[in-house]
Amino acid sequence: MNRQVIINADDFGLSPAVNRGIVEAYRACGITSTSMMVNMPGLADAVYAARSCPVSASSCILT
Predict the structure, then answer these.
(1) Which GO terms describe its molecular function (predicted)?
(2) What is the mean pLDDT of residues 37-60?
């Protein structure tokens, strides 16, 4: 049986600072998925940043 480790970065879209941290972590340690907060002030920044780090999976948080 093959096992896969999923490393999820939560709160993508919360703020530009959080977005930068997630992108840096993606580049440094291989984050495999994100959870994007679509109704937060950093959404536009997160969408732009996501183009530079294509993760294999993503989910949306509707808070």
Answers:
(1) deacetylase activity; hydrolase activity; metal ion binding
(2) 84
What domain count does the chain have?
A: 1
User: Would you state the torsion angle of the CA atoms of residues 12, 14, 18, 19, taken in this order, to the nearest 10 degrees?
Assistant: 50
Who's near 9: CB < 8 A, 6+ residues apart? 22, 25, 26, 31, 33, 34, 35
20: pLDDT strictly greater than 80: yes
From the list 28, 47, 27, the residue with the least C-alpha distance to 37 is 47
Q: Which domain holds residue 37?
A: 8-61
- Whether 2 is covered by a domain: the verdict is no
Name the band, by pLDDT with cuts 50, 70 and 90, for residue 13.
very high
